[in-house]
Structure formats: C-alpha cells, structure tokens
Amino acid sequence: MPALWRFALVLSRSRDTADDLVQATCVRALERAGQYEPGTRLDRWLFSILHSIWVNEVRSRKVRQGSGVIDAELALIFDGRQAIETNILAAQMLAAIGKLPEPQREAVLLVYAEGFSYQEAATFLGIPIGTIMSRLAAARGRLAELNDNSGDGDGRN
C-alpha cells in the first residue's frame, strides 16, 4: 500500500487525491477480483488499476473545469524521526520531480523510487519499453538542467 500511495501522490500531487486514488483502486480491485490472474504480481495489477483510474480522472477534470494541484513541496511527509538534512534533500528532489511532465514523473517514480524494471513500468503504463527509456532519459536531462539552474552559488549556469 505505501508504494501504491506514493505512486498516487506523484501522479496527483495531492495527499487527499492520493488517498482517494488508493481507495478507489482497492474498491475496483475487490470488484474485479475475478480478473486477477493467480500467480501474477499483485502490485503490477494494482498499479495498472490506479493508473487507469488516474487517467480517467484527468480526462474528467479537463471536461469539467481543469485541475487544481499543489506544489510538490507541500506533499512531502515530515515524520520528525529523520535528519532535517534528509528531509530538505527529499523536499528538493520531490519539488524537482514535481516540475517534470506527468509521463516523466510516472516513469521516475516507478523505476527509480519503486525499483520496478523498465519492462514492469512499461507494462503498468501500457506503453512500449522504449517509451519508458525515452521518458527516463528526458527526465534525467531535465532534472540535471534544473539542478544546474538552482542558483546554488557555485558559478554554474
């Protein structure tokens, strides 16, 4: 469930929406339990359901009004037990990832944060593996560009 929630948070950029997405995913999984193929990875099936629900929600929002999202920094969970430096770095990384286009955010979360293989991420999202590779390469380039332009005072532009 934590991995599913993190995926929902990266997609939606909202804690409340992430909670709703995970709940809707669980409800849909229970409703369609007969469609689950025993012996396959349950997480793969749940991630696919969540992604499908999210895509449908985005389409609905566009039709209704548009979306209201929060900054990625506001979505960071601070538990007080980790070092402050770790939380600052995590907030900076989350903010940078939040600036990526949604397809790149999805790929980064699935492969780098959740540790899924390129093929697994491609399967979750219903796209070719080459597209995952392309999105990750573009995301790495964009994150490097954002880091270079962060104004950290080392003289880089």
Automatic annotation (TrEMBL):
<dbReference type="InterPro" id="IPR014284">
    <property type="entry name" value="RNA_pol_sigma-70_dom"/>
</dbReference>
<dbReference type="GO" id="GO:0006352">
    <property type="term" value="P:DNA-templated transcription initiation"/>
</dbReference>
<dbReference type="InterPro" id="IPR007627">
    <property type="entry name" value="RNA_pol_sigma70_r2"/>
</dbReference>
<dbReference type="Pfam" id="PF04542">
    <property type="entry name" value="Sigma70_r2"/>
</dbReference>
<dbReference type="GO" id="GO:0003677">
    <property type="term" value="F:DNA binding"/>
</dbReference>
<feature type="domain" description="RNA polymerase sigma factor 70 region 4 type 2">
    <location>
        <begin position="92"/>
        <end position="143"/>
    </location>
</feature>
<dbReference type="InterPro" id="IPR013325">
    <property type="entry name" value="RNA_pol_sigma_r2"/>
</dbReference>
<comment type="similarity">
    <text>Belongs to the sigma-70 factor family. ECF subfamily.</text>
</comment>
<dbReference type="InterPro" id="IPR013324">
    <property type="entry name" value="RNA_pol_sigma_r3/r4-like"/>
</dbReference>
<keyword id="KW-0731">Sigma factor</keyword>
<dbReference type="Pfam" id="PF08281">
    <property type="entry name" value="Sigma70_r4_2"/>
</dbReference>
<dbReference type="InterPro" id="IPR039425">
    <property type="entry name" value="RNA_pol_sigma-70-like"/>
</dbReference>
<dbReference type="GO" id="GO:0016987">
    <property type="term" value="F:sigma factor activity"/>
</dbReference>
<dbReference type="InterPro" id="IPR036388">
    <property type="entry name" value="WH-like_DNA-bd_sf"/>
</dbReference>
<keyword id="KW-0804">Transcription</keyword>
<keyword id="KW-0805">Transcription regulation</keyword>
<dbReference type="InterPro" id="IPR013249">
    <property type="entry name" value="RNA_pol_sigma70_r4_t2"/>
</dbReference>
<protein>
    <submittedName>
        <fullName>RNA polymerase sigma-70 factor, ECF subfamily</fullName>
    </submittedName>
</protein>
<feature type="domain" description="RNA polymerase sigma-70 region 2">
    <location>
        <begin position="2"/>
        <end position="62"/>
    </location>
</feature>
